[in-house]
């Protein structure tokens, strides 16, 4: 993705008469294509995209401060354009970063392997109402810490208010969540473990835990995962995905089965061919069987990164 980087030091110096400096990078993307929803027997043509702004600066004592914002037009539905971001700020120094604001709890998806298609193709009704291992709520206001311990990367988060997913939260909120995710590379094998808990205002807490292992080989990267959730009805998920290449094209294959009294099976395929200049063409297939809306969705289109 191409990025336009603007040096705004002169502007800051002229306006604020200081030596402060900042970097702003701008990137954009657009996608256009068609989705055939086999379950609903309908084909929809859709466009969407967005512009992203990454803002950062570094203090005199070496602390990096960053945030981001965006303007988006949803690619998986008919939602109106929206301004996003500026809901959290990250402070980083010496390989450790602290984020304050709106976020999703760490460890919520660990082990949930098998999905390979984009949101563009995920808009179909195929797989709707299928069983899931997801916690009821995973997003809110809180703090997270990312660092390294030995060779492991560790991220821990505590959310103190899940009733507000915007830019403020009450530290004495009645809902909360906490989670941790640890990743450890060992040569060609990388293992990740995670745990997350959601505490509602009333009723029993929900927990989910998972593990995944990714092995890089000549043919590509194979990842397998397992996730178990303690919900009102316990659920488990087992999945695998293979990411490989065919010439200059990338190919991803995924399979996932979720059991929660009943079972939902999902098979996905995604292939993308770069055309140069940030443009590519893609095709994606999403098949679901078992509980939920069974059927197959197929999408084709082009995406461009600026």
Helices and strands in order:
Layout: E1 4-7, H1 9-16, E2 22-37, E3 42-58, E4 64-73, E5 82-85, E6 88-93, E7 96-104, E8 139-149, E9 152-161, E10 176-186, E11 189-199, E12 206-217, E13 220-230, E14 235-246, E15 249-260, E16 262-276, E17 279-290, E18 295-305
Antiparallel strand pairs: 1-2, 2-3, 2-18, 3-4, 4-5, 4-6, 6-7, 7-8, 8-9, 9-10, 10-11, 11-12, 12-13, 13-14, 14-15, 15-16, 16-17, 17-18
**Radius of gyration, Cα only, in angstroms?**
21 Å
Oligomer: single chain
Structural class, from secondary structure content?
mainly beta
Q: Helix segment count? A: 1
Estimate the strand proportion: over 45%
Instruction: Based on the coordinates given, report the CATH architecture.
Output: Beta Barrel
The number of strands is 18
Number of domains: 1
Name given to the CATH homologous superfamily: Porin
First-residue to last-residue Cα separation? 6 Å
User: What's the shape?
Assistant: globular
- Give the H and E element order: EHEEEEEEEEEEEEEEEEE
In what order do the strands lie side by side in the largest sheet?
A: 2-3-4-6-7-8-9-10-11-12-13-14-15-16-17-18
The name CATH uses for the topology is Porin
Low-confidence stretches: 1-19
Overall mean pLDDT stands at 91
Helix content: under 10%
């Amino acid at each position: 993705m191409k990025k336009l980087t603007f040096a705004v030091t002169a502007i800051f110096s002229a306006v604020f008469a200081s030596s402060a400096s900042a970097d702003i990078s701008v990137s954009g993307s657009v996608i256009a294509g068609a989705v055939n929803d086999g379950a609903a027997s309908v084909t929809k043509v859709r466009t969407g995209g967005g512009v992203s702004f990454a803002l950062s600066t570094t203090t005199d004592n070496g602390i990096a401060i960053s945030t981001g914002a965006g303007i988006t037009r949803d690619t998986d539905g008919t939602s109106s354009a929206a301004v996003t971001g500026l809901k959290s700020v990250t402070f980083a120094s010496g390989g450790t970063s602290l984020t304050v604001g709106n976020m999703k709890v760490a460890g919520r998806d660990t082990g949930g392997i098998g999905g390979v298609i984009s949101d563009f193709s995920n808009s179909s009704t195929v797989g709707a109402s299928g069983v899931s291992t997801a916690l009821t709520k995973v997003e809110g206001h809180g703090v997270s810490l990312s660092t390294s311990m030995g060779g492991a990367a560790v991220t821990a988060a505590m959310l103190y208010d899940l009733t507000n997913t915007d830019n403020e939260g009450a530290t004495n909120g009645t809902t909360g969540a906490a989670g941790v995710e640890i990743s450890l590379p060992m040569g060609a094998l990388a293992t990740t473990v995670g745990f997350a808990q959601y505490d509602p205002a009333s009723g029993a807490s929900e927990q989910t835990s998972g593990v995944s292992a990714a092995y890089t080989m000549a043919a590509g990267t194979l990842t397998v995962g397992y996730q178990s959730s303690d919900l009102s009805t316990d659920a488990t998920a087992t999945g695998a995905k293979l990411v490989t290449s065919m010439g200059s094209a990338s190919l991803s294959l995924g399979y996932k089965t979720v059991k929660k009294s009943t079972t939902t099976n999902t098979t996905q395929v995604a292939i993308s061919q770069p055309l140069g200049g940030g443009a590519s063409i893609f095709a994606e297939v999403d098949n679901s069987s078992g509980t939920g809306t069974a059927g197959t969705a197929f999408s084709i289109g082009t995406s461009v990164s600026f």
